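hey so i finally got around to running the thing on that chain from the lab meeting. sorry it took forever, my laptop kept dying and i had to restart like 3 times. anyway pasting the input first so we r on the same page abt which one it is
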Amino acid sequence: MELSQSFGTAATAYAEHRPDYARAAVRWALEPAPGPRVLDLGAGTGKLTATLVTLGTEVVAVEPDPAMLAELRRGLPAVRALPGKAERIPLPDGSVDAVVAGNAMHWFDMAVAGPEIIRVLAPGGVLAGLWNIMDDRVGWVAELERVGGSAVIGTRDTLRNWRTETAGMAVGFAAPEQATFAHGHRRTAASLVATLGTRAGMLVKPEAERESIVDRIREFLDGTPETAEGEFTLPMLTGVLRGRRP
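ok and heres what got predicted. didnt touch it at all, straight out
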């Protein structure tokens, strides 16, 4: 199974355990947009869509995976949600003022998706990718990265490498800008293990190997003062890359 096609197998867990996005980050992403019409592309179960709704945008969601789309429709029944993908967007030319993608743009084939995104954007429209990343300036988070390994916490998932990894995502858009915004996710040790289990690298692992990694992470969290008892806040940032249609 390809990594990009793995999420549907854990759609319910994804909806329950993945974090939302910092509202300030979403506001900044949309700041240059010429109007309120927003496409959430690769919307998953609607984590970013829900924030867009609270900000009063006219949002339409597009998601290729049927199980993820079903979760989005269940959780946000008032949102227009369509099957489709970045490389073939089911919307008319110039029909949105902004296209946003939450933890999804790195899955797009931008050689094909870039022209499609430009096609559906109105003049002066905005493309913005948002990524929730762990703040590995915090000691125990950096150690969790080491313990979990790249299948759980990849290079794009931490502040250390995020800007480098995302620098080429908005090729073809004028003067791409990047910014990060403070965020956090209330977790317990058990729910953080569940969250990390929804990562693509974990979902495609053989069961025995996945269980071994989970056991290692659980042992680390149980033995770390910040995470051993009750709820805690996982230190995060929402990183944003935005560019305007040329």
